[in-house]
Amino acid sequence: MNLPFSFSDDMRSLLGEKEFLELRTALEQEPVASIRLNDAKYVDRESTRTDGLQPIPWCREGFYLEERFTYTFDPLFHAGCYYVQEASSMFLGEVIRQQIHEPVVALDLCAAPGGKTTHLLQTLSADSLVVANEVNQARVRTLADNLLKWGRPNVVVTRNDPADFKDIPGLFDVIVVDAPCSGEGMFRKDKGAVEEWSPENVELCHKRQRRILSDVWQALKPGGLLIYSTCTYNVRENEENVKWMCEEWDARPVEVVVPREWNITGDLTGSDVPVYRFFPSRTRGEGFFMAAVRKEGGLSEEPDRGMPFSGKKGKKKTSKNKTTSPGPVASRSSMEKAGQWCRLSGMDYIPVYTGESFGLFPGRHAELLNYLEDKLHILQRGTPVGEWKGRDWIPSSILPFSILVNTAAFPVYEATYEQALIYLRKEAFPLPGHLPAGYVLVCYRDIPLGFMKNIGNRANNLYPAEFRIRSSYLPEQIRIL
Ligand code: SAM
């Protein structure tokens, strides 16, 4: 790999000659492939599927792959049973596990395509709420789709500029800023990152990161945790930004306990600020940086924002949002349907309406949702359940992705691997004659893939068109979970 001269120079002076040469050798090797299982969907019942895979030390659900999977041809990938994620960045789960011990309201500020958000959702308690934000219009759709497939109801997707969060002070217990960066840690995964690299871009990123952090700092509660990460090596975008937060604001660095054998590298600037660096020459994964700071002050100092959910005085806001009910009869029948089609396990949900569709959202965050609807541009909330068609509610084609779906509410057809691929290409195949007319849940290895509508002499494939496999080719070697 032809490393930019100035990058090599910087790294050499940062790491010393020996470590720089080790890094350069590591950058010549193939990137490491890894996945993180969705433990709410995929339980390794057969326990053979992950047997041969090496676990990622800092992530219980993470596994290295000796050979990259042919993801496109894995029905379990499409069903949201795992997320393809770079191993080093799974360190987020360890930071959360050590620092957060109760339900929280979390913001993932730069969230697309959803690696950190899906990880937050599986690490935080199910009573938590995660707001996944992405400013980029094209990328936010991918984020929303990935979160639909991940299947959790306790998530809201927003498309806002970081500056918009200035308007909601002290709201979040946890904020993750996985900042846009110069991408040095991605050099061996993405050759474009090498070509785009320049000292000027490092400076630009450094400034943009400070702007993003400044914009969102107000939105963190006193006592709250801000987790900052990049996939780059230089100190301008890393240590210097963390130290700057601690010097300029009421931020205190947070230490994470890491076993020595994980080979995680600390601060490279000679200070003792706890930061966590992943070098491919030392840890198995790509280049990554993470640090956490806590906002000084306890929750008791929380300002009274007069928000409806704060339980304090303040005017209750009525929502001017799109989640208003379609009328008492329809709304009663929608909740009846939700009770049949979903396993609510004693948890309290409210219906949320968008146009002709309705979904479920955790009741304990209902007032917070109302507040967010007024402040932010919300694209998606909770879990889709049904659509109003004619005078009936019909199940949403997204419902099978939800961890709430009640598989006992529908006749199930267990597809073979070949049928699963036909289904995921949104092509038709006949269902056996004994299945009743109506909605049939197509499963593969007991995992719901989607619905077909059985109409006797044929069955309509209801798989969402936007998720379908577009390739008609099948590789000779299939490597799947
Ligand atoms: N957290 C994501 C994950 O784990 O899948 C990856 C996030 S990526 C490193 C950084 C994200 O920041 C990108 O999605 C990018 O669109 C977004 N971004 C770019 N410029 C931004 C800005 N000025 N403010 C906020 N986000 C920005």
Average pLDDT, all residues: 92
What is the strand content? 15-25%
Task: Name the bound molecules.
Answer: S-adenosylmethionine
| First-last Cα distance | 32 Å
* Sheet having the most strands: 9 strands, mixed
- Category by helix and strand content: alpha+beta
How helical, in percent, are the residues?
Answer: 25-40%
The number of strands is 21
Oligomer class: single chain
- The low-confidence parts are 300-306, 310-321
User: What's the overall geometry?
Assistant: globular
How are the elements arranged and paired?
Layout: H1 5-15, H2 17-28, E1 33-37, E2 54-56, E3 59-65, H3 75-78, E4 82-84, H4 91-99, E5 105-108, H5 115-123, E6 129-133, H6 137-150, E7 155-158, E8 172-178, H7 191-196, H8 199-217, E9 220-230, H9 239-248, E10 251-254, E11 276-278, E12 288-295, H10 328-341, E13 349-354, E14 357-362, H11 366-375, E15 378-381, E16 383-389, E17 392-395, E18 412-414, H12 417-424, E19 438-444, E20 447-454, E21 459-461
Parallel strand pairs: 5-6, 5-8, 6-7, 8-9, 18-19
Antiparallel strand pairs: 1-3, 1-4, 2-3, 7-15, 9-12, 10-12, 11-12, 13-14, 14-16, 16-17, 19-20, 20-21
Helix pairs in contact: 1-2, 4-5
Bound molecules: S-adenosylmethionine.
S-adenosylmethionine (SAM) binds next to helix 5 and helix 8.
Describe it for me?
The protein is an alpha+beta fold. The chain is built from 12 helices and 21 strands. The strands form 4 sheets. Strands 5, 6, 7, 8, 9, 10, 11, 12 and 15 form a 9-stranded mixed β-sheet that branches. The chain has a 4-stranded antiparallel β-sheet with strand order 2-3-1-4. A hairpin with a 2-residue loop joins strand 2 (54-56) and strand 3 (59-65). The protein binds S-adenosylmethionine (SAM). Residues 110-116, 134-136, 139, 162, 178, 180, 208, 212 line the site of S-adenosylmethionine. S-adenosylmethionine binds at residues 110-116, 134-136, 139, 162, 178, 180, 208, 212.
